[in-house]
């Protein structure tokens, strides 16, 4: 991979921040956008903007085609069977809520059990928590092991004939752990449970094959994989989507309305009420094509090398504690850490003064923070446009932070 | 902007060795608050003697700014009348908002004046006064 050439594709990466070159290491929050994505969106508005699925004129045909081409790009990217199985949403959060308010609302009963892991982002916990409260269902939490990997033995012992749904994050946005979703799914299916995979962090960084994973639902966010904000996707097996009631209702999702009856639209449009974010979808298609041209295997290999390098170098910062697996083979490029005596916010501010952007806080994973006995962590997260030199700058700035706060015992 | 301005020695000193940290035996008022985004937490306990803040203690955890602010502000108001306390809190808020303020009244609290240059951190510095506000409202 020619990183210097790749970096030129991302205009913001050449920006100066506080008189320093921007070092953007908050990719788990959102990623930067290549020119092709920015231009695809501008091209829509310059040349063929029209509401989709409505007009009878050429512009509308073009915008509708571009919107549906994006659905095909998402299908191909995660290897779904059919574009009927790809529903556009605002983001992963909305995709997960859609499942909670449709399939789960209709199928989860009092006494049923829902299994999720301690690593879940709030967006794959709170919808199930609220559902369980509404229905009188029981939530079980799979813990992580000391090494930051999921405790599969605990998971196996929790599965029972009462298990109706398993929600699992594919790649943790805190530990970076890549969970064995294929095995999780196959075990759950033996008990007749459906599996929801939160792919918000995995889809941007590794090859996804939903047919191979065999999950029933898979959620992703466009903005975490070079796309614009406000566009995400839900993959669901066709049989589930057929059986599910719509989520939101209004225009677009119906075929026919009289004053006393409605006929829902076909899949996937049944789940897309109102004017969709076609601008976002068009940007997402450009993002997917960019990733495909690089090759997801290449992305994954390069990021693993970067992660291994970062794990090695960060160990040299005095009093640092790195959460999650320390083996780069087990995780994505997400490193959460704390430095004794320096609060993560202070780390964030000190790094900012060096032009380095990282995240500090609870990362929308408060149950995991509590489990680790902290209220906040600092987190550096990489993408394929990051470099080893940037990691060196990060490590130097962390050492500076430690110096400012002195060496406290 | 320099880091030395933000992380002054006195701030780090109060962060690492906070004053007035702990609990009071029989507080007349207490209150707590947090910054949901960053997880900073502060709880304040006060004892009054007539019109005066006779004693004040805090507990909390969080970044150097939120914790040193709690330490510094408890120092500033201990023994002051409620009226004076409110005046100090008002001037402190002015300082964080980048307005004119009475430096003499603020004393050591002025060490936090550069926080205003870091908008993301102003919430950390103001948590203590928000909590104190609530506690003072409990005074009959
Ligand atoms: C693991 C994981 N799941 C879900 C989400 C939610 O993504 P969004 O906010 O785009 O809906 C995130 C985003 O931080 C995440 O990291």
Secondary-structure blueprint:
The complex is a heterodimer of chains A (409) and B (140).
Chain A: H1 3-8, E1 16-17, E2 20-21, E3 23-24, H2 35-48, H3 58-78, E4 86-89, H4 92-107, E5 113-117, H5 126-135, E6 138-142, H6 152-158, E7 163-169, H7 181-190, E8 194-198, H8 210-213, E9 217-221, E10 232-236, H9 238-243, E11 254-258, E12 261-264, H10 278-294, H11 296-314, E13 320-322, E14 334-339, H12 344-352, E15 356-357, E16 359-361, H13 366-372, E17 377-381, H14 388-404
Parallel strand pairs in A: 3-15, 5-6, 5-7, 7-8, 8-9
Antiparallel strand pairs in A: 1-2, 4-10, 9-10, 11-12, 13-14, 14-17, 16-17
Chain B: H1 3-6, H2 9-16, E1 29-34, E2 41-49, E3 52-61, H3 64-77, H4 82-96, H5 103-106, H6 119-137
Antiparallel strand pairs in B: 1-2, 2-3
Helix pairs in contact in B: 2-3, 3-6, 4-6
Question: What is the CATH class designation of chain B?
Answer: Alpha Beta
Largest interface (CB < 8 Å): A-B, 19 and 21 residues
Mean pLDDT of chain B: 94
Main sheet: strand order of chain A: 4-10-9-8-7-5-6
Rg of chain B, nearest Å: 14 Å
Heteromolecules bound:
pyridoxal-5'-phosphate
Instruction: Please bin the fraction of helical residues of chain A.
Output: 25-40%
Provide the structure class of chain A: alpha/beta
Query: What is the CATH architecture term of chain B?
Result: Alpha-Beta Complex
Structure summary, number of beta strands of chain A? 17
Strand content of chain A: 15-25%
Q: Can you give the helix content of chain B as a percent range? A: 40-55%
Rg of chain A, Cα atoms, Å: 22 Å
Oligomer: heterodimer
**Fold-level CATH name of the largest domain in chain A:** Aspartate Aminotransferase, domain 2
Largest sheet of chain A: 7 strands, mixed
CATH superfamily of the largest domain in chain A: Type I PLP-dependent aspartate aminotransferase-like (Major domain)
Can you offer a commentary on this structure?
- The complex is a heterodimer of chains A (409) and B (140).
- Chain A is of the alpha/beta class and 409 residues long.
- Chain A is built from 14 helices and 17 strands.
- Chain A has helices at 3-8, 35-48, 58-78, 92-107, 126-135, 152-158, 181-190, 210-213, 238-243, 278-294, 296-314, 344-352, 366-372, 388-404; strands spanning 16-17, 20-21, 23-24, 86-89, 113-117, 138-142, 163-169, 194-198, 217-221, 232-236, 254-258, 261-264, 320-322, 334-339, 356-357, 359-361, 377-381.
- In chain A, the strands form 5 sheets. Chain A has a 7-stranded mixed beta sheet, with helices on both faces. In chain A, strands 13-14-17-16 form a 4-stranded antiparallel beta sheet, covered by helices on one side.
- Chain A is globular.
- Chain B is an alpha+beta fold and 140 residues long.
- Chain B has a single domain, classed as Sufe protein. Chain: A.
- Chain B is built from 6 helices and 3 strands; from the N terminus they run ααβββαααα.
- A 3-stranded antiparallel beta sheet of chain B has the order 1-2-3, with helices on one face.
- In chain B, α2 crosses α3 and α3 (64-77) runs parallel beside α6 (119-137).
- Chain A binds chain B through residues 18, 341, 343-346, 349-350, 353, 360-362, 369, 375-376, 404-406, 408, and chain B through 1-3, 6-7, 12, 16, 37-41, 61-65, 118, 120-121, 124.
């Amino acid at each position: 991979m020619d990183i210097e050439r790749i970096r030129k594709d991302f205009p913001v990466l050449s920006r100066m921040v506080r008189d320093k070159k921007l070092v953007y290491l908050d990719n788990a929050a959102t990623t930067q956008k290549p020119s092709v994505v920015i231009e695809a969106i501008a091209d829509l508005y310059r040349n063929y903007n029209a509401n989709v699925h409505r007009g009878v004129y050429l512009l509308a045909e073009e915008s509708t085609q571009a919107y549906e081409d994006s659905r095909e790009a998402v299908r191909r990217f995660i290897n779904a069977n059919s574009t009927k199985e790809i529903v556009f949403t605002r983001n992963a959060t909305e995709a997960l809520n859609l499942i909670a308010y449709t399939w789960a609302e209709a199928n989860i009963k009092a006494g049923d059990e829902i299994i999720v892991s301690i690593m879940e982002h709030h967006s794959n916990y709170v919808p199930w928590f609220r559902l369980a409260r509404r229905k009188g269902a029981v939530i079980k939490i799979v813990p992580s092991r000391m090494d930051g990997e999921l405790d599969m033995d605990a998971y196996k012992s929790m599965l029972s004939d009462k298990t109706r749904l398993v929600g699992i994050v594919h790649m943790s946005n805190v530990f970076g752990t890549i969970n064995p979703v294929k095995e999780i799914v196959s075990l759950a299916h033996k008990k007749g449970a459906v599996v929801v995979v939160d792919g918000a962090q995995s889809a941007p960084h590794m090859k996804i094959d939903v047919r191979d994973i065999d999950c029933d639902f898979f959620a992703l966010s466009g903005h975490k994989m070079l796309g614009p904000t406000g566009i995400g996707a839900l993959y669901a097996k066709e049989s589930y989507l057929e059986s599910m009631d719509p989520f939101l209702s209004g225009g677009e999702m119906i075929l026919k309305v009289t004053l006393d009856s409605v006929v829902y639209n076909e899949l996937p449009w049944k789940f897309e009420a109102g004017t969709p974010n076609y601008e976002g979808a068009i940007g997402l298609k450009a993002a997917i094509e960019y990733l495909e041209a690089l090759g997801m295997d290449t992305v994954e290999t390069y990021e693993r090398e970067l992660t291994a390098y970062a794990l090695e170098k960060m160990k040299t910062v005095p009093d640092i504690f790195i959460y999650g697996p320390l083996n780069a083979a087990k995780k994505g490029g997400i490193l959460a850490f704390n430095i004794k005596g320096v609060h993560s916010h202070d780390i964030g501010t000190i790094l900012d003064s060096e032009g380095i952007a990282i995240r500090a806080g609870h990362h929308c994973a408060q149950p995991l923070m509590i489990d680790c006995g902290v209220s906040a962590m600092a987190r550096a997260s990489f993408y394929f446009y990051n470099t080893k030199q940037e990691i060196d700058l990060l490590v130097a700035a962390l050492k500076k932070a430690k110096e400012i706060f002195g060496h406290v015992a | 902007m320099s880091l030395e301005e933000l992380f002054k020695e006195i701030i780090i000193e109060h962060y690492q060795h906070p004053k007035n940290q702990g609990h009071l035996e029989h507080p007349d008022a207490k209150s707590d608050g947090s910054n949901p985004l960053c997880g900073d937490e502060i709880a304040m306990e006060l004892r009054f003697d007539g019109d005066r803040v006779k004693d004040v203690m805090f507990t909390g955890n969080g970044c150097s700014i939120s914790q040193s602010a709690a330490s510094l502000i408890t120092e500033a108001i201990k023994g002051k009348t409620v009226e004076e306390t409110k005046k100090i809190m008002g001037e402190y808020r002015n300082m964080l908002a980048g307005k004119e303020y009475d430096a003499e009244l603020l004393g050591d609290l002025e060490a936090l004046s550069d926080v205003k240059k870091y908008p993301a951190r102003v919430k950390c510095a103001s948590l203590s006064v928000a909590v104190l506000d609530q506690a003072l409202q409990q005074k009959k």
